[in-house]
Fold these 2 entries.
Entry 1:
Amino acid sequence: MEVVLRRSAGLAGRSVHAPRPSLAVLSLPASSTRQYTPSRPPPNYPGHVPLNRLEKAALAIGSGLMSLRDPRRGDLIAAFAEATATPYFIYRLRDAMLSSPTGRRILRDRPRITSTSLNLPHLRALGPNTVGRTYVDWLDREGVSPDTRAAVRYIDDAECAYVMQRYRECHDFYHALTGLPVVREGEVALKAFEFANTLLPMTGLSVFAAATLKVQERRRFVDTYLPWAVRNGLRAGEVINVYWEEELETDVDELRRRLGVEAPPDLRAIRQAEREERRRKAAEGRV
Amino acid sequence: MAVRPAQFRRALLQTPSRLRQQNTIQHSHPELQHLLSAASSPARLFSSTVTARALNTPDYAVPNPSRPTHFGFQTVTEAEKIERVATVFTSVAESYDRMNDLMSFGWHRIWKDHFVSSLNPGFSPLASGLDPRAPQHILDIAGGTGDIAFRMLHTAHIVNANPDVRVTISDINPAMLTVGKQRSTLLPASQQAALSFVEANAEDLTRTTPLSSPGTANPPTSAIPSASVDLYTVAFGIRNFSNIPAALREAYRVLKPGGVFACLEFSKADAHPLFNTLYKEWSFRAIPLIGQLVAGDRDSYQYLVESIEKFPSQADFRDMIIDAGFVVGGQGYEDLTGGVAAIHKGMKPRA
C-alpha cells in the first residue's frame, strides 16, 4: 500500500498524505521500496551464475579476445572455456567419462585436486620415475601450485561443471605427462594436444595464440609440436578418464604406454640449448 | 531573491516537525551560493532558539558492530560489512577508474564535474569583508582515488584563484588512498601541497591516521575537530557505509555552522520506467561481466550493483539528512541523468 502511494503521488503531496516511515527504519530503508533483481534461474550449485545466451556470447567473445592479448589472465581463459563449452562439447566429454569404468568412478567420487588433497611432501619422497614424483618435480621446477585454478561458474549442469573443474585441475598432470613447460610455447603445444584429445573449443582456439609466438618458436611448433600433439591426442585414450589420485605411484613411462602417448622432445632443454648457443655466438662476435 | 510560496510550503512540510518549530527555511534554490547568501543576511537568520544539536543521538545512528545491515542483497552485521567492503575495494582499487569509465561510458566524469562546479569551492560570498576568497577546509570522504578532490583543487586554486583552500581526502581503504596518492603526483605542486590523505572510518572521524607508506611505523591517530570543515563531500561512497545515519551525524559534527554537506550518489531512476528497465538490465548483466573481463572480479561488481539497488531513494535519503540535523533547500536533491545519480545537499544551521 505504502509503495503504491509513494510511486503514484507527486512529490508535494507525498509527505502530507502517505504515512511517514518511522525514522528508525531509515537505517535500513530499502525494505520500503520494491527491489529489482534480474530474471535469472536459481543456481544449480554454489557459485553458479546462470547466464542467458547473450551474456554467454558476450563473455565468450570478451574473454577470448582479452586472454589472447594477455595469456596470463588465467581466470579469463577459464571463463572462455566455460562460455564455449556448451552446447555440444562439454556433454561429449561427460559422455566420454560415462563410457569408461574409471570415468564413471571419477564422476561418482568427484575427487578434487588441491595442495591439501594431494599431500605434496609424500609425492616428493616417491621414486624418481613415478607419476607423482614427476608431477611434483614439474610443479617445483615451474614454480606453480595446484591451488591457482578458478572454480567453474558458468556451466549450468552440475555434473558437467564438475567435468570442467576436473579437466582444469588435471591440466598440470597433463603437463607432467607430456613434460611440456609452462612457457607460452609449451602451453600452446599442450593445448593442441588437449584439443585433439578432449575437443573442448577453448583448447582449439588457444592454438591461435601461436600467432603471438616468436618466429623460431612458431617454426618449431608447426614442424614438431603440432604434428606431435595431433598424432598423440587422436591416438591416445581419453586423458580425462585417468584417475590421477590412483596413478601417483605408477611408473610414468608405463602410464604413457598404457595411454598411447609418446613424450615430445624436451622443450626446456631445446630452449636452454638455444639460449646458450645465442650467448656463445654473442660472446664470439664480441671477441 | 523571491521565494515561491509553493516551494516554501513544500520545504517547510519536508522538515520533521520538531525542527520545523526551530528552523525557518527562507530559500528554495539548492545551489550553495544561494543557501549561504540567504542564511547570511540578518533578516533571514534562523531563529535564535536554535542551538547546536542538543538532540540525543538515536540508537540507530550509533554504530553497533552486531546490528544487521545489508551487503548487496545479503544480510550481514555492520562489522562484517566493513570487512567485506574493504575486500571489495582493495580488489578493485587498481582498475577502479578504468571500470568507472567502462560502466558509465565515461559519464561519471560529467556527473563529478557538475557536482564540483555547483559547489564552487574557494568562493564563499558569506566571508566577512569584501573578498569572497576566504580560506576553506574541504573534507572529501570516501575520496580514495581523488576524482572529486582534484576537481575541487582545480576549481578553488585556478578557476577561483583562491590558494587558501585545502582538501583532506579521507578513505577507510588504504589501497584506494594509495591509488589517489599516485595520481596526485601529476598535479601542480601547489595543489599537491594543499592535499592530505588520511585513513578513517567516516562513522568516527575522531580516529584518523595519515596515509603511510608500507613498512614505515604506524603514524599517530588524530581527530578531525568539531566545526572545522567548510565543505564535506562524499561521492559514490556513502552507500558502502555500514551505518549511514552515524556517518551523517559525524558529518554534522565536523562541519562548521553554515558548512555544507554534499553527497553525489547513485539513486533511483524509477520515474522513467522504460529507461529504468534498460538501466537495470545493463547494471545487473553487463557490469558484472565487464568486472570479470577487466578486473577479474565478478563478485565485487555484483556487490556494487546490488548496493546501488539497496540505497534509499532520493526522498528517503533527504529525510535521513534532515534527521541528522541538516537543513535542505527545496526538494533537497538534484537528479542527474534521469535519477541514475543524484546530488543531495544540506547545510548545518548556524547557531
Note: Strands of chain B lie at 68-71, 74-77, 136-141, 165-171, 195-201, 204-210, 229-235, 255-266, 333-336, 341-347.
Entry 2:
Amino acid sequence: MKEPQRLRRPVPRRTRPNRSILGALSQSDGLPPIADPVDGPEAGGMHPLGPGFGDAAEADFAADPLSDSAREYIDRNVRSASDLIDGQIRQGEETAKSLGRSAFSSLNGAASDLPALLTGLVRAYSDIGTAWVDIVGALAQKAETAVPGTVNGSRNAADMPMIGLSVVAGQPVEASLELFRPAQRLTVQPLVATPPGNAADIREVSFEPDGSGAGGRIRIVVPGGQAVGMYHGLLLADPEGTPAGAVTLKILTLPEDERGRS
Amino acid sequence: MAEQRVKKVAIIGGGCAAVAAAFELTRPERNGEFEVTIYQLGWRLGGKGASGRDAETGRIEEHGLHLWMGFYENAFRLMRDCYRELDRPEGSPIRTWRDAFKPDNFVGVTERRGADQWDNWAAYFPPAAGAPGDPLTGRNPFSVKGYLARCALLLRTLISSVQDSYPGSVEPGARDELAFALQTLVASAAGSARGDQKEFAAKTLKYGQLAASALVLEALGAVRWAVESTAPAAGETLVALLEKLSAVARRQLETLVAKNDELRRVWEIADVVLAIMRGIIRDRLLFTSQGFEAIDEYDWREWLRRHGASEASLDSGFIRGSYDLLFAYEDGDIGKPRLAAGQALRGAMRMFFTYRGALFWKMQAGMGDIVFAPIYEVLRRRGVTFEFFHKLENLALSPDGSHVAGLDMSVQAKTRGGKPYEPLVDVKGLPCWPSRPLHDQVINGAALKKAGWNPEAHWEDHSVARKTLQVGEDFDFVVLGVGLGAVADVCGELIAAEPAWQTMVQEVKSVATQAFQVWLNKPVEELGWDLPPINISGYVEPFDTWADMQQLIRLEDWKTDPKAIAYFCSVLSDADIESSDDKTDAAKRTSRHVRDSAIRFLDRDVAHFWPKAVNADGFRWELLETGNKSRSAKSGKARFETQFWTANINPTDRYVLSLPGSLKHRISPLDDRFDNLTIAGDWTDCGHQAGCVEAAVMSGLLAATALSDYPRLSDIIGYDHP
Ligand SMILES: Cc1cc2nc3c(=O)[nH]c(=O)nc-3n(C[C@H](O)[C@H](O)[C@H](O)COP(=O)(O)OP(=O)(O)OC[C@H]3O[C@@H](n4cnc5c(N)ncnc54)[C@H](O)[C@@H]3O)c2cc1C
C-alpha cells in the first residue's frame, strides 16, 4: 500500500519583521471592519495618535499658552519636517503602486489574488527600496556628522553616494546593502554562500552608475533553483579596488513546484 | 485534481499563543482545511495566564496578576471575534467583550523618596478614542518619525505646563485632543489627578520665574532641527540643540525641583523624553532598516543614560515601573535589572502613543474565565479536539533531521468510560476553570485527590499510559506552544540537530515569579488608601506590584462577600528556589518561602499603601476574609494560610525575559528549518519581543501563517513595527 504523502509547510514569504520605514507600507489598515453593535467608540477622547498620521503637527493647540507667533513658528517647522518625510513615504507608496499596476497587467489572468499580489509587490519594492532607505539614512547622517564630537563623526557623509539595490529572483529573498565608506563607482563581486558549501555563486551581478556620477544601482539576478541560504558579496570601490561595502542576500525557500509537492 | 485531504495539526499546549493559532486555523472561512487537536498537560488551558476557581468560595486564584494594555490590537481582536462567535444569550454574565474588559485610566507608580520613604502617584491617562481591536484608520501609526513628532509635542506640552504657572494661562475648558491628553498627563504628573488644573496652577505659581521663555526658545530651536535634519544644508543639529535645551533646563529646574514633587515629576518625564529624542536621532533609529532592534544590545537605562538622562530620572517611578512590568530582572535578582533598550522603547512608544480606549484594561473575572473558557467553548463548537492530561515528553525528529516524525506523550490520567473530559465548572452562571482537576471524572480520582496529585507540577510523574503520535497518521503539522522553559526538555533532538535552536535555548532566558492574593473584610479606603482603585508598580521588593481587584468581588461566590481583593506579584529570585533530589519536597519548600515573604511584606511593607491595616505588632491578621471553613479558626499569622499564594517555578511557567543582546537569538514561527513544525509563544521572534499576552497572540497568528499563509503578515498589527 502506498504511504500517505507527507505534507510540508508552504513557502514563507519572509521570515523577519520588516522594520524599516518601508515596513510601514505593508502594514494593513486592519481586517475587515468589525460589525459589533456594542462596540461604540470609547466616549470622550481622541485617538492618541491624533486624527491621522502626520496630523499631529497640524493639531490645533488652542490651549497652548505660547504666543501666537511662537506657536506658528513651531507648527510651521514641525509641519514642514513632517511633510518632507511624509512626501518621501508617499513617493515610495506611489512607486509600489505603479509597480503593482504594471506587474498586474503583464500577469493577466492571475488576478484572483490581487491584494496578495500587491502585498508581494510592496515587499519587492521594499527590497529594491533598501537603496532608498540608504539615501535618507545618508541625509540624516550628513546632518549628524556636522556636529563635532557626536558618534561616528569621522565619516564625511556628504560624500555618501546614493546606491540602489535591485534583485530579480524567482523565489523569496531578503536583501540588504551596507556601505562602509563612500565610493562613487563600484565593482560587485559574485555573491558567495556562507558557510561556503555546495551552493553555486550568484554571478549575475552588476553596478549601473546613474547619470550624475554620484551613485547608481546594484543589480542582482538570482538564477532559478539557487540553493536556499545566506549569500554575501563584496563591493569594491573603483578604480582602487578596495572594499567599500557588502551586499547580503537571504534566499528563503524554493518555490513550491520545485519542491515536488502534490 | 485530487481532492485536498484535511490537514491534521497537533498543537502542544493551551496558552495564549497556542489557542490563538487554533482559533486562526479553524476559522469558519477555512472550510475545515485543518483538523486541530490541542494536547494540554493537566486539567486546564491558560499556561501562564491560567486561573482557577476555589471549590468552596468560588474565589479566583490566578497564576499572576494580568492586565491588558490598550495597544494589544491582536489580542483584543481575537477576544472580540471570540465573544461574537460565542454569542452568549441575553442576561448571561460576561456576555460580550465589553463586559469582559473594562478600561482603567489610572496608572500607579511608587516613588522612592529617601531611604525608607515612598510616595504613591496615580497618573491619569485620558480615554482615547476607539477601542483596541477596532480597524486601524489612517496611515501607518507606528513610524519612528511619527513617534518623534509625538515626543516633541509631549515635550512642548511639558514645557508649556511649566508656563502654566503664569496666572490665567490655561483654561481647562479649551480642550484639544492630543494636547489635552498630554496636558492631563502633565497635570497628573503634578499630583493633581483628582484636583483641578487651577489648583495646580496656583501651586506652581511661585515658580513662575522658571525662565520658561528661555526653555521655550531652546525648544523652538530643537524643533527647527527636525526640518534641518532632513534638509542637508542645515548647520546645527537637533542633537546639539536638544543637548542645549536639557542643559539649560536642567540648570534651572534641578534647583527648583529638589523641593517640589510636582515639578520634579514633570522634569523627570521631560528628561527621559529628551533622552529618547536624542537617542532616536543619534542612533539613526529614524532610518535604519533594523528599526529599534538596532539598540537591543543595550540595557534600557544604559541607553537612556548614554543619551543624557539623569540618574534621578532613571530611578523615577516610571522607569522602575517599566522593569517591574516586564519582570526584567535577570535570574530574578533585583540587583540585576536588564531590559533590551529597543524593545523597551517599542513598548513605551506603543503603550503611551498608540493606546486605544484606555492605557490599561482590566479583566472582569479570572483570566481563565474571561479568555480561556470562551475560547475553549468556541473551539469546541468548531470541532477542535482537546486532549487534557497529555504531557509531551519528546519531539522526535525524522532520521534525516528534516521534520518532526513523532510526538512522545505521557498520559497523566484517563477519564472514566473514555468520555471526553469536561473541564469547566459553573460559578454564578459563568463557565469557569476549577483550581483543581475534576477528580470525579478521572479513573482513580479519589485516590489521586487524596494524594494531592498536581498534574501541572513539573516534577509530578504520575503517568497511566504512554503514546507516540506518528506523522502522516496522527498529525501532519505540529505547533509547539509550550512555554520557553519546557523547550529544552522536550526538544532535545531539535536542539542537537540545529545550532540556532541550541543558541536560542542558551541565550533566551526566563525568570520565576511569585504572587499572592488577599481577601479583606474592610475596603482599602478604610485602611487608609486615598487614591483611586489602582494597579501600582515600582514598590519595594519582593512584591513590587499591587493591583486592587475589587471588581471581582461580585463574581466570586462567598457566603459573606469580602470588601476588598488585592493581588501582589513580582519576580522570584533563582537563589530562593530550593533544590534537592526530592523535587516535590523542594517545590514545597519554595512555596513556603513565598508564603513567608508575603507574610513579611504584609507585616512590614504594606503599611505604605494601607496605614490602618497595621498596628504596633504588624499586620492586623483579622482583616483577612477566610470564607466559612475550618480556615476561619486560624488566627494571627497562621490566618494567612487561608489566602492564596503561588511560586511559579515550573519551567514552562517561567516568565520570558527580554535581555539585552538576547533578542536576536529568538526563532520565528515563520522559520521553516523543520518543514512540518512551527512554534508559538511569547519567547519567539514575533515582532513584539516581550513577555505579554499581545506577543503570545502575535506568535500564534504567525504560527497559523506559517502553516497556511493566513492571516497575511500585513494583518498582524505591529508585526512590522520598527
Ligand atoms: C506572574 C505573571 C504575570 C504576568 N502579567 C502579565 C500582564 O499583566 N499582562 C500581560 O500581557 N502579560 C503578562 N504576563 C505574561 C503572559 O502571561 C504571557 O506572556 C503569556 O501568557 C504567554 O503565553 P504563551 O502561550 O506564550 O505561553 P504559556 O502561557 O506558558 O503556555 C504554554 C502552554 O503549554 C503547556 N505545556 C507546557 N509544557 C507542556 C508539555 N510538555 N506538554 C503539554 N503541554 C505543555 C502549558 O501548560 C501551557 O498551556 C504575566 C506572566 C506572569 C508569569
Note: Residues B 12-18, 39-41, 47-49, 64-67, 391-392, 481-483, 486, 490, 513, 515, 569, 648, 652, 655, 681-682, 691-693, 696 surround flavin-adenine dinucleotide (CB under 6 Å).
